[in-house]
Amino acid sequence: MSELADDYLDSHYIHRSNWLRAAVLGANDGILSTASIAIGVAAASDFREPVILATVAGLVAGALSMAAGEYVSVSSQTDIETADIERERKELEEMPEIELQRLAEIYEKRGLKKQTALTVAKELTEKDALAAHVRDELGINEISQANPIQAALASGAAFTAGGVLPLLVALFLPFEHLEYYLYGSAILFLIILGGLAAKTGGSSVKRAVIRITFWGTVAMGLTALVGYLFNVNV
Ligand SMILES: [Zn+2]
To answer: Residue 162: how many CA atoms within 13 Å on its side-chain side?
Structure first.
């Protein structure tokens, strides 16, 4: 397969794995924060209804705040990139010679000989000066440019997909010792997703599983403790 095809596949694999990792991490947040709320209320209450209510409220609030947070952070990233590109366009108009030198220096630093670097810079400038500077000087490429709405929807959906799991447990499993069912099922879901994210990202599955189990246990354990301490009969 040609080198170009390899690059094309690689860039698409990276794109896909970025999205998958973000979705898995979003779902992890959904599981952990929704399960923790459910466990905290289950530890404090003698009835299932308050647990369901708190779990649904936590799920909706969490999904909306994740989506809003993602929208704001991606939008401000896009704003910064758009302003940078605009400044670059101006610099290319006002001082094309200096910009050409700057581009050649970037290629030289990457290992090209001085003359080769200048030739490459000249040819790419002739083809599309702004594109060359945006990509090689500012480091902005299609992978880093996310769509804020798409990112917000993906993040909210991932959180919801994760958070629905503890809600189903709170709805259908026996109310007696519900905290343990919630904890056990949440840890199981977290291990599966954490392992998947590690595998997709090419990192150690074992370490990811130990990490998520430990922090998951700490988070859910502390909310259970708070619930027991309050022990409110609603
Ligand atoms: Zn430039």
So the answer is: 33
CB 143 within 8 A of CB 131: no
The two tokens of residue 95 are 């001082």
| 4 band by pLDDT with thresholds 50, 70 and 90 | low
Rounded to the nearest angstrom, the distance between the alpha carbon of 138 and the centre of ligand 1 is 8
Angle formed by the axes of helices 148-172 and 48-94, nearest 10°: 170
Cα-Cα end-to-end distance for the chain: 66
* 133 CA to centre of ligand 1 in angstroms: 5
Q: Centre a 10 Å sphere on the Cβ of residue 23 and count the other Cβ atoms it contains.
A: 21
Distance 78 CA to ligand 1 centre (A): 19
DSSP result, 28-64: HHHHHHHHHHHHHHHHH-SSHHHHHHHHHHHHHHHHH
Q: Which two tokens stand for residue 152?
A: 């917000």
Q: Please list all protein residues whose beta carbon sits less than 5 angstroms from ligand 1, which is an ion.
A: 99, 133, 137
How far does residue 140's CA lie from ligand 1's centre (Å)?
A: 12
Other CB atoms within a 10 A radius of the CB of residue 197 amount to 22
179 Cα: distance to centroid of ligand 1 (angstroms): 58
pLDDT (tens digit per residue) in 9-56: 555 555 556 677 778 889 999 999 999 999 999 988 989 999 999 999
Give the whole-angstrom CA distance, residue 38 versus residue 65.
Answer: 18
